[in-house]
Amino acid sequence: MQKQHFPRHYSAVELDKILKLLAEQTASEDSAEMALALRPAFTVEEVSERLKETDDAFVLMAKFGSPSFSGLKNVAGSLRRAQAGGVLNLTEFLRLLGVLRNLRGIVEWRHKSEGMKTSLDWRFQALSPNKYLEDRINLVVVSEEEVADNASPQLAAIRRKIQSASSRVREHLDKMIRSSAYQKFLQDPIVTIRSGRYVVPVKAECRGEIAGLVHDTSSSGATVFVEPMGVVEANNEIRVLQSQERDEIERILAELSAEAGNFADVIIESYQAAVGLDLIFAKGQLAYRMKASCPKVNDTGRVLLNQARHPLIDPQKVVPMNIELGAAFDTLVITGPNTGGKTVTLKTLGLLTLMAMCGLMLPVGDNSEISVFQQVLADIGDEQSIEQSLSTFSAHMTNIIQIIEQANHHSLILLDELGAGTDPVEGAALAMAILEALRQKGAKIAATTHYAELKVYALQTAGVENGSCEFDVATLRPTYRLLIGVPGRSNAFAISNRLGLGEEIVERARLLVSGENRRFEDVVQNLEQSRQQLETERQKAQEQHLKAQQISQEAKEYRERLEKEAAQEMERAREKAAQLVARTRAQADALINELEDMKKQGAKAMTAEQRARMKSGLRNLENSSDPVSKKETGTYVLPRPLKAGDNVLIFDIDKEGTVLETPAPSDKKVLVQAGIIKTRIALDNLRLLEEKRSSNRAARRSGTRNVPKRSDAPVMTEVDVRGEDSIEAVMSVDRAIDSALLSGINQLTIIHGKGTGVLRTAIQQHLRRHPSVRTYRLGVFGEGESGVTILELK
C-alpha cells in the first residue's frame, strides 16, 4: 500500500500520533497500514456509521472478549499464482493455513454472541471459513521443510521402502564396523552420510584395504569416507526411491495448489473482511485504553465536550476540561499566561473532532457532542519560543492567509497565539481583523492570544466569547481548567513578585500600565475572585446534594428491605393460618363423624363417658384454633449480666438477636440487633440463649425428647404419586396415612392416574392389607374417577 501524504493541519493537532497508537492495536500488517491511512469522513451518516461500528466492537469485547486476528497474513499473491496454475511451497501453505484457521476462529467467536445484533454483522457474514481446505493442508504439510507421510498412499509406500532399504544398508555397515577384521582400518566405528549415501570413515593409509567408492575426505586428509561395494546397490536403490519421493511431493503440492486456487476469490474476500474487522476491533481496544465513550454527532457546528481529556497526555496527569463552541457563540478567544494550557485546549478540540470523524471513540464524559466539519484548519506553532522573528511571523501569516482562502461555514479554525511576533498594537489590530474575516465566512473559530485588546473585543462582540485557562498564582502552576466566559489574566506582575522580583520594580511597572488597562485588569481580577468564591460554594452545595442523595438511597433501600421482610412474614402467617384452618376442619369433621356414628348406632342419649370425650374434643378444637399463642408468664432472672456479643431471645416476639453494647448496671434497656433491625429492648424481655442451649443439652442427656402433638403434625388430605414406581408410591402412601392419622383426618385421596393401571393395582393391594384403612374406593365423576383412590381411615 502506497503511503499517502499526511495533511499538515492534521499533524498540527497530532492526529498522526493517534493513528500510530491505533496501528499498534492491530494484529496484521495490512490492518496497521489501513490504520495509518485512515482519514476523516465528512458526512454525519458516515461518521455515525463508523462510530456505531466501533461502539459495537467495544461492547462485544466487553461481554465476550476480543477475537484473535494474530494469524492474518496477506496470501493474495500466493492464491492468485495458484489460481493461474503455479505451485505453492510449504511456507506459503503454512501462511494460508494460518489465515484459514484465523477465519474459522473469528466465526466461532461470533457464534458465542449470535443473539446480539450489531452493525458488524454484515462484515462477519462476509467471512467464509474453509474447513475442507484447512484439513487438506493439515494432512499434507508438517512444517516448512516436511510433507507428511500420509499425504498420499504412494508417498507413504515410497517412504516405507526408503526406510527398509536404509535399514538394510545400516545393518550391513553396522556389522562391518563391529567386525574385528575391519575395525583396525576405520578412523571411527560409526556410519555416516555423504552426498546422500551411507559411508564409513576409513583411515587414509588403509584406503586399499576396503573395497568401495570414496565420496569425501576430511579437511585434514587423514580420513576418507568410503561406500563399501556391498552397499552400493542398496544406496542406489535409496537414491532412486528418493527421486520418486520428490516427484510424488511435487505432484501432491501441485494438486493441493490447484485446490487452493479454486477457492482463491472467496478466501481473499474473507481475508479483506477480516482485516476490516481487525481495524474496527483495534479502535475498540484503543477506546478501552483511553476509557473513551461515544459522542453524539451533528453537522450544525455545535461542539460540547464534557470532561474532555487529551489522549496523548499521561492519564495520571491529564486534567479534564469542558469545551464548548458553536451554540451560544461561534468564536472562542482563550487568554492566559504561558504554560497555562491554551495550546493543549486548542489541540484537544481539533484532535477529538478529527478522531470522531475517523470513527474513534473519544476520552470524554457523558452527553458530549461533536460536529462534523468539512475542514479542520490549524495554525499551531511553538508558543513557548522567546524568539519571535520576522520569518516566524511571516510563516504564521502565510498559513493564516491560506486558511482564510479555504475557510467556509463548514470549517473549524484553530489559531494559536494569533497576531504574535510583531508590534503588540499592530498585532492586536491584525488579530481582530482576521477573526472578523473568518467569522464573515461562517467558520467556527478557537484562538489563543496574550492581547488585552482581544479580551475587550470578545466582551463587546456578539457571538465571540472569552475563555481562560485557570492559573494558581500561589503555586505558580496552571490547573489546566478551561473557564468559558471569563477573560484570562497574564498574571505577569504576580508571577514576577512570587519569583522574587523587587516590590518597587513591580509597583513601578503597575504605574507604567495605562489606567484603562489597570481598570480592566482589576475588573477581571474581581470577576475571578467572585468566580472562585462561587465555585467553592457550588462544590460545597454539590457535596451536600450528593450526601443527601446517598442518605435518601440508603433510606429507600432500608424501607425496601423492611417491606420485603414484612411480605415474607405475611406469607409465613398465611401458611400457618392455612394449616390451622385445615387442622381445625379435620378435627371438626372427626367430631361430626363421631356424632353421625352414634346416631347410626341408634343411641338415644350419650353416656357420661361419651359426653366427657365430646367436651374434651371441643376444648382441644377451641385451643388449637386459637391463632394467638399465649406466652407463659413468670419471673425470669438473667443468669448473669449481659455483655456485647451475647445471643438472646426477644421473648414477646420469639426472635433471636445479638447484644451490641454492654449495658450499664443502671440501664433498663440494651441495644439488640435482630436481623437487619437495631433497637433497644427491656432487659426483662430478653432470655439468654446459653441457658436455653444448656437446658436442651441436659434434656438430651436425660434421654427425654419431645413428641409432636397431633395438632402440630403437617396436614395432608391428598397425596400425588404419579410418575413414581410401585415401591416408591406405596411408601408415599404410607407416609400420607401416618400424617393423616396424626392430624386427625379420616379421609385421604391418593392420585395415581389412569395409565396402565399398574400403579392403581399395587396401591389398592397394599391398602387391602393396611391395618389403619377402613375402606377404599375409586373416585366418582368430579373426584377424578379411576385416576384417584379415596380411602377412609379407622
What does this 3D model show about the protein?
This protein is α/β, with parallel strands linked by helices and 794 residues long. The protein has six domains: 8-130 and 263-290, MutS, DNA mismatch repair protein, Chain A, domain 3 (Orthogonal Bundle), CATH 1.10.1420; 151-257, MutS, DNA mismatch repair protein, Chain A, domain 3 (Orthogonal Bundle); 296-501, 3-Layer(aba) Sandwich (Rossmann fold); 534-624; 647-698; 714-793, Ribosomal Protein S8, Chain: A, domain 1 (2-Layer Sandwich). Helices cover 51% and strands 16% of the residues. It is built from 23 helices and 25 strands. The strands form seven sheets. A six-stranded mixed β-sheet has the order 12-13-14-10-15-16, with helices on both faces. It has a five-stranded antiparallel β-sheet with strand order 20-19-18-17-21. Helix 2 runs antiparallel to helix 3 (29-36), helix 6 (90-111) packs across helix 12 and helix 19 runs antiparallel to helix 20 (608-624). The longest helix has 86 residues, at 515-600. The chain is flat.
